[in-house]
Amino acid sequence: MSLFDNGLMKILKKLFLFVVISLAFFYSNSLASVSEQEASKALKLSNDAIGKEVGDYTLIDQDGKNFSLREFAVGKPLVISFIYTSCGHICPTITANLGNAIQEADKDFGDKFSVITIGFDVENDTPQRMKEYGANFTADVKNWRFATADRETIERLTNNLGFYYKKIEGGFDHLNFLTIVDSKGKIYEHVYGIDFKPRDVLQPVSEAIYKTAEQKEIKIGGFIDRLKLFCYKYDNATGTYKLDYPFIVKMVLESMTILIIILFIWGRDISVLFQRRFGH
Predict the structure, then answer these.
(1) Which residue, among 117, 195, 193, has the nearest Cα to 157 in the 3D structure?
(2) pTM of full prediction above 0.70
(3) Bigger pLDDT: 109 or 48?
(4) Which three-class secondary structure state does DSSP give residue 98?
(5) For residue 45, how far is the Cα from the chain centroid?
(6) Cα–Cα dist 260/237, whole Å
(7) How remote is the C-alpha of 169 from its chain's centroid?
(8) Nearest in space to 126 (alpha carbons), one of 85, 170, 156
(9) CA–CA separation, 250 vs 32, rounded Å?
């Protein structure tokens, strides 16, 4: 008897109908505001930046003074993070975790690298706003600066570092990562996510003290990196950050749909091949 008899085909048809209806529901109700295509494009943008030289950009620090990004960290690694000051949860969490890493580094090599947090919301992230934002995390603005710049500079800098962001209602969709720049001024690594531990930052920083981007194997980000790319969802009830499960379910349902379509189109051929290969 064929593996794909009438009874099984009826079951598959019902399952297919269920998947289609479920997909329609999750497409209309998903909390994810970016498409898989956008996520893939953003990940490629960030990966392509690895190994590239960071250009020289004129920024404005928290005290309103112009300075050269290249001169700020000359001769030692640099950690760069992008935020926008009106971000309610994600950006402060990233900055707080970065602060934890800096405190941990002070025990061993805190003076061997510099840190800069850059506000990319050019309409609102003024030097004063950056100063107020930075004061929540550190008093040492010598080695950890909070800066902004004009629109053109921000666009060139974010493109250079592979940082994707898009303005939406009430804020921005953006990548969640820190960028590690080596002592030669080339992008060494991105640290993805918001819940990173000090070691996740300090390991590539310590490597970048003694290695350059050319000496490091470049790895293409995988599925886990994709999950970390965009803002996690903040659960007001628990006060924690959670994966966007509707988005994950949507991707599973899409995969199921593709599998079922394959079975519908080539099911009998597959059955024949199995019977020829394993039949007695």
Answers:
(1) 117
(2) no
(3) 48
(4) helix
(5) 11
(6) 38
(7) 20
(8) 85
(9) 10
